[in-house]
Amino acid sequence: MIMGKNQTLISEFLLLGLPIQPEHQNLFYALFLAMYLTTVLGNLIIITLIHLDSHLHTPMYLFLSNLSFSDLCFSSVTMPKLLQNMQSEVPSIPYAGCLTQIYFFLFFGDLGNFILVAMAYDRYVAICFPLHYTTIMSPKLCLSLVVLSWVQTTFYSLLHTLLVNRLSFCADNVIPHFFCEISALLKLACSDTQVNEWVLFIIGGIVVVIPFLLILVSYAKIVSSILKVPSARGICKAFSTCGSHLSVVSLFYGTVIGLYLCPTANKSTVKDTVMALMYTVVTPMLNPFIYSLRNRDIKGALRRALFRKKNSFCV
Length: 315
Ligand SMILES: *[C@@H]1O[C@H](CO)[C@@H](O)[C@H](O)[C@H]1NC(C)=O
Prior knowledge:
three-stranded mixed β-sheet; binds 2-acetamido-2-deoxy-beta-D-glucopyranose; 5 strands; Rhopdopsin 7-helix transmembrane proteins
């Protein structure tokens, strides 16, 4: 455990939670519980459908299933603890719990990010090299992309977690947030956090900016290949295959950019909290709907799955 200069032992942190009035506490509890259950259910349905239906065993849907898995875990890092704390008198989290939360938050946040890149690359190959699609996007390449994402995100989140672990925390243990957010935690440390801040800025920038640029390049190539031979059919095809991915990407990067790149003049923690809610609760919840509502293949798979169920009931 950590011994501070004034010999206080910090074994747990207090999470201030959301800026909600006590009389609205139950309403928001119900709302977040419903949102979390929707997230879990929606993503589980996507994963199950994709694995059950052999029509969906294509790179695009296997990546989508990976994204759903990552979203499901990502919101499970923060939501159950938030729900528990909303109901408890002392909303605390043990020191080890806090580090665990930091680790998995970074892990699944970054994993989802890299899966989005793999999906963009997949769309790029599908539209720019339709004839070579199956040879380029081989199962081996898909698996390598997924394994690579897992390996790099393991190192990335381990690095940050170990760097936080070497800090000492003294008297102040109140985190003005609803989960152990790494930058909120750095503000509480009573040892020097210069290294942490640099690493967070540089590595954090790299793992957000590079994937974003890769996605932009993929889409730039897709657009230029469509413009070379402009046909209504080509444009429709591109929109129908890329539309959902583009919406998910905008949702993800919109919130991240809004949070980290738009400076807040008056250190507003309310804005930070609301933005954090956007990407921890809302984005993982919406992803499955964005994909399934607009997607004929997923709807077909759902129909087939339900139909098969009904048949087996009749027998
Ligand atoms: C993730 O993608 C890989 C490679 O395409 C696939 O083999 C695996 O089943 C996917 N994982 C999930 C949870 O869908």
